[in-house]
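Encode chain A's predicted structure.
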Amino acid sequence: MHYNTSELCDFYADLIDVVDPIFCNYGGRSSFAGNVVTLKCFENLGLVNELVKIDGTGKVLVIDGGGSTRRALISVSIAQCAANNGWEGIICYGSVRDVDALEAVDIGIQALVAIPVGANDQCIGETDVAINFAGVTFLPDDYIYADNTGIILSLEKLDIE
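Encoded structure for chain A:
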């Protein structure tokens, strides 16, 4: 399904928060939406690897990577695993790698920047916690909508029909 964040902002201005425009689109989908699953980790992708292996149908993984631009939390193997398990998208307050290959994976990915250096694979971090970056607080089970124009967050699923 295609999502238009500009139209959603026009229709639901009082129900949404707009994420600061600091992200770039790296995935094969230009728009995506779903129920938020939160992860907080810093330069360690072990928990990212674990989460993308579970069923992500209708969900978006939102990663608070501390804004690190030193080590990538998302690689093509992680993105492909997430796509294979039904995840709608990944929003990473951190970095990605394998940029050219990410474009071919059928998943939405938004992150700060790309860097070729991968993160450690330790399972250090927290899941299903409130995280705060880009001017908003993300809670587990919020709804998130993203496209090339921006990212918006809602406490409730928006009627887009």
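The chain has a mean pLDDT of 97.
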